[in-house]
Design brief:
The chain has 425 residues and is of the alpha/beta class. It has 11 helices and 14 strands. Strands 3-2-1-4-5-6-7 form a 7-stranded parallel beta sheet, sandwiched between helices. Strands 10-11-9-8-12-13-14 form a 7-stranded mixed beta sheet, sandwiched between helices. Helix 8 crosses helix 10. The two termini are 16 Å apart.
């Protein structure tokens, strides 16, 4: 029996949460018996299953140059807010039909960052599963819509460009997608119910098949450790409570809610608590110390090793996720898998992960006071062992990477038109 084969396309094998989640799916499918290859624009891993998918000689410098050229189009909109917007004008990626000749299905992941133009996708010539990390595949260039519903039509007059022009850069991006997707066999894989709903409402993906397949976490890596031992290993305070926050570009991207993090901590200070240490990871200088809201602040810097990251989550009492818009962030799922409860705003796909009072607390979007009350509620729980066990249990039930991989395998099997060994009785 011929082995089922799948090829993935992603901007990178390691940069950013979306690409990391995609690579985890690839490795999981390999473990489930598929012939899986991972085609990327920016390769970092020394892994024989990772294949460069760019023009010869481009390299990282070349990809940065193309990204710079794309970003020049944004200069026409000097009043735009500081939210990510990725134009689709130039690309450094290459789709070689021969690379996909043996693939039954091609999985697309995060292909923004100037990696691929939608019109290049017609060269794939295979059924496509497109996993949505954000709405960029069906918008005119934005990654998260805010209150805008332009993606339901054809974009234009984009609020993220501060543009009054109907025929602006977002309309151009929409038209390029419309031209590129015509005639393609695309099945959409939505990690959260929130993004599945947006895709269904969109004018580009609304008529296509949409499957809800959650983001998975490797439960053998992201697992609970003894909190005291984890703190000792990381050099964190052994006394008191630890409030954890982690996000890339937290201070640059308003969507990450850094302003609300500060507001929440100020309210925690006013509540009279004096037992907190705030720990931040992701982008800051390692070892940097200071204060935030009167509480000690420790920066762990960027942490790439998943085993070390598992210790970071385990060392904390609560993860705070004040994100104003997100799909199904890895940081939330990883924390839950390590048994650390989460206090977050009820936005995007986060309610898929948090059961109020069971493994965390949800507050209304932008309600710093409510988020602070949620943090206090979790910190004041006396049944700490039960809370950690329940938190881990939700991750096991909903976000097991192997179980999510099996869902992808079944979908690929169906679209590829033949069986996978071991899937049928």
């Amino acid at each position: 029996m011929q082995q089922l084969s799948v090829a993935h396309l992603a901007q990178s094998d390691s940069e950013g949460g979306a690409n990391k989640a995609a690579f985890r799916i690839h490795r999981t499918l390999l473990g489930l018996g598929l012939n899986s290859t991972f085609h990327v624009g920016r390769r970092s891993k020394d892994d024989p299953t990772v294949v460069p998918a760019h023009w010869p000689g481009v390299g990282r410098f070349g990809s940065d140059v193309v990204a710079y050229l794309n970003s020049r189009a944004l200069r026409r909109y000097p009043g735009r807010p500081p939210t990510p917007f990725s134009p689709m004008r130039f690309s450094y990626g290459r789709i070689d039909r021969r690379s996909f000749a043996s693939a039954d299905v091609v999985c697309l992941h995060w292909i923004a960052g100037s990696f691929l133009d939608a019109r290049q996708l017609r060269a794939i010539g295979k059924p496509i599963v497109w996993r949505l990390s954000d709405i960029w595949p069906f918008s005119g260039g934005c990654h998260y819509p805010g209150a805008c519903t332009g993606f339901e039509r054809a974009c234009g007059q984009c609020p993220q460009l501060a543009s009054p022009d109907a025929d602006d850069l977002s309309r151009d991006g929409y038209r390029r997608r419309e031209q590129g997707y015509g005639g393609l066999d695309i099945t959409v894989a939505a990690p959260s119910r929130w993004i599945a709903d947006l895709a269904q409402r969109s004018s580009l993906f609304g008529g296509r098949r949409i499957e809800h397949i959650p983001t998975g976490v490797d439960l053998s890596v992201f697992r609970p450790h003894d909190p005291a031992a984890a703190r000792q290993a990381l050099g964190l305070p052994t006394e008191g409570r630890i409030l954890l926050f982690g996000a890339l570009g937290a201070t640059e991207d308003p969507r990450k809610g850094y302003r609300h993090l500060l507001g929440t901590i100020e309210r925690l200070a006013r509540s009279g608590r004096r037992d907190l240490t705030c720990v931040v990871f992701g982008g800051a200088t390692e070892g940097e110390t200071g204060q935030i809201g009167g509480f000690p602040l420790r920066h762990l810097g960027r942490i790439d090793g998943e085993a070390e990251l598992s210790l970071v989550y385990s060392a904390a009492d609560v993860l705070i996720a004040p994100f104003l818009e997100d799909n199904l962030p890895n940081v939330v799922l990883e924390s839950l898998a390590c048994g650390t409860s989460v206090a977050a705003f009820a936005v995007g796909g986060i309610p898929d992960a948090i059961v109020n009072g069971v493994n965390g607390v949800l507050a209304p979007v932008g309600d710093d006071e409510g988020l602070a009350r949620g943090v206090i509620e979790l910190l004041d729980r006396t049944d700490v062992a039960s809370l950690r066990a329940a938190t881990r249990a939700v991750a096991e039930q909903r976000f097991d990477l192997v179980a999510c991989g099996r869902q992808y395998r079944e979908l690929i099997q169906e679209l590829g038109g033949h069986d996978v060994p071991g899937t049928r009785a």
